[in-house]
Please model this.
Amino acid sequence: MCRRGILHNHAQTKCLDLRLKGSGDRSRVPPTSLCRTYARGAYGQLFEKIHDKLSSKSSSKTEVPTDIPSYDQPLDRRTMYQLRMQRGVNLGSWFALEAWLTGSVFQHAKDPKQSDLDLVSGMKPEEAKKILEHHWDHFIDDGDWKWMASHGISAVRLPINYVHFVASDSKYSSLLKGTEFASFAEVYQGAWSRIEAAIKKAASHNIGVLIDLHGAPGGQNKDAHCGKSDGNVSFFNGIGAGSNRKTTIKILVELAAAVASYENVIGLELINEPINHSSLEGFYDDAIKAIRSSNSKDAARLPLYLGDAWHTRHYAKYVGEHSNAGNPLVMDHHLYRCFTKQDHSTSAEDHAKALDLNNGETANFLKSISNQTGGNVIIGEWSSALNPGSLKNSSNKSEAKKAWGMSQWFAFEQFTAGYFYWTLKKEGGPDPGWCFYTAVEKGVMPQSLNPLQATRHRSPQELQQACDQAMDPLYKEHCKYWDSRNAKGQHEGYVQGFRTAWTDYMSFLQQGTEPGLTQTLCKLRCASFESQGHKDAWEFEHGYMQGLKSFKKLLYQ
Model:
């Protein structure tokens, strides 16, 4: 049981003790192999196939907001929040409810007692309001935020339902009219102020927040976590589907403007786990256009996260083609290995082997979609859960679970810009498969998600002095290669790019983190460099990426 102050059993006590102890020892499983991974293959091929940059002028296509600092100036705090490596957890069933996580709040809900709508339909509004507000006020508290920060969590994904936002102010009443929750506005009036308080609390712990629209008008999937449990996907199907999508876009525009004022909001996820419907891409097109046209400059360039509807290759291509440095898009892929028949018949050991960094099938898949998206991919949901069938032949089930959990962490660190464990806490007994608290307690997850906490700390002076030493052999090879191909010159752009990357990485490191959306960051810096009249932006870009890779290699040696 990983919920504080409601049930009192042995499992809950253990979970609470864990929360209040602080970080403790760094890791039960030293991340030596992870460190080696960073060193191994960090450079990739020294010379990427970038010759087409000489003629394509790809960097010039990037929009650069006028108030973004020059390439030779420090990054602002907001940009660092948005582009850093996002190591996080989901705060599941805090606002967007799921009965299997927080069954206690559903005691008086209407059958089948699975969704928000079931809960508020099963009692008088004042009773529902009292239950929900008590839950919102106590499910996640100060102890949770302190524990998360001490265990290397730099971001949280916060699932919400549209009613949590639009019920907050009468100016949004037209957006609530005609929806499932139209008659329950009073119940949810206090939700948004609590969500804003959560964003502020996260900021006080240097934790970023990804706002996830988990439930849209009509429901974008058949699951109860979209807010209703009738199984009708009225967001896509039926006579009112078009209206539901249009209303959702209006909500997203207002929501983006509301959250963009907080510098620690790392992005807005347009919709959670939509079904793979023919109207989805058009919805994304329209929603992105509407938000990018916002009167709020911060909202207009807020990173937008897109669920891949398990049509991953398609939306990886979509993100790769539509994202740019000024207006980044990020694909959200959810990875579970416990639901299908194939999952059940695959051993825990084979699940873990598929994530082997050298040639694992799933690892190669992650690498491929990362390349397709330009590095703009996260794992928005994952867990350590396995079906019993995957463990039936394991001689040591505990070790098999640990290997499975750790293999995911290693791979996500290597091939993604972030990941969010599902979920921080749940009611019931200890569950290392789904409750992050108990996953850490049982060693299925490391004591800290941040591998930096297990590395030897180098002084800023030491790191700065290492810059030219790391750059010199790469610069010589760069010059030799391009001079031999009639691209002779000073190649000063490479030097400036390398040193800028080095300085940027140090800035992230001073905040206890690392760059995550590295190619977006590179393009942003490169476009700024080019806008100042430099002719060798392609060399700057090459030097910048080599600088990031070199710094990471040094960091994890």
